[in-house]
Amino acid sequence: MNKQIIISPSILSADFANLERDIKLVEDNGADWIHVDVMDGHFVPNITIGIPVVKALKRFAKKPLDVHLMIENPEKYIEDFAIAGADIITFHYEAVKPENIEKFCNKIRKLGCKVGISIKPKTNQKDIIPYLSFVDMVLVMTVEPGFGGQEFMHDCALKIPEIVHNSKNGLIIQVDGGINNITSKICTSLGATSLVAGSYIYNSSDVKLAIESLRA
Length: 216
Ligand code: DX5
Ligand code: ZN
Description:
- The chain has one domain: TIM Barrel (Alpha-Beta Barrel).
- Helix content is 32%, strand content 19%.
- It is built from nine helices and eight strands.
- Helix 2 (51-58) packs parallel to helix 3.
- The chain is globular.
- The mean pLDDT is 97.
- Bound molecules: D-xylitol-5-phosphate (DX5) and zinc ion.
- D-xylitol-5-phosphate (DX5) binds at residues 10, 12-13, 35, 37, 68, 143, 145-146, 148-150, 176-179, 196-200.
């Protein structure tokens, strides 16, 4: 049992008419964080939830809100997400001009949040190496962002060791997309320390067992 692995169930696969119930379900069964997928219909083809919903979730969520911004122009909205109650804010490397990344990370920190930087499947891990010292977490997407329930892309997980090799101790390496009890082992053996899982957890008949199986 690996207790250090941070499990962050994605509510994209929860019942949106019962978010309070479905967040409590994972919180009571071993979740460490709650992963909130924000999509704008521009950066990704899908539209999900935004600032007012994060604010509502914050009223009852006991675990930190791990907010994954799949949006263009994240700089424009960051303050609102922080005020709404995001605890960890992950933006996409592809959505911010390289010259603005350091300043942007500092701004997120000043707002009291942990900072994550994410890369899509086609982005090379080498591109984010210069920014690792500005962030608390790297999110390696193991599917094309936009939808839950897609198949794990093994090649993407192979980016992890180079990121680990170039990072300071304590940098969280999170993976997101197609994570189940088998792909989780591939990722943790390569150095991932946080797992996002949506459909695997929420479609399971025993949520506690599903979360334990990711950590095992
Ligand atoms: C995809 C999202 C994921 C999604 C994962 O763009 O970022 O967080 O919910 O879903 P599963 O675990 O079903 O692949
Ligand atoms: Zn996500």
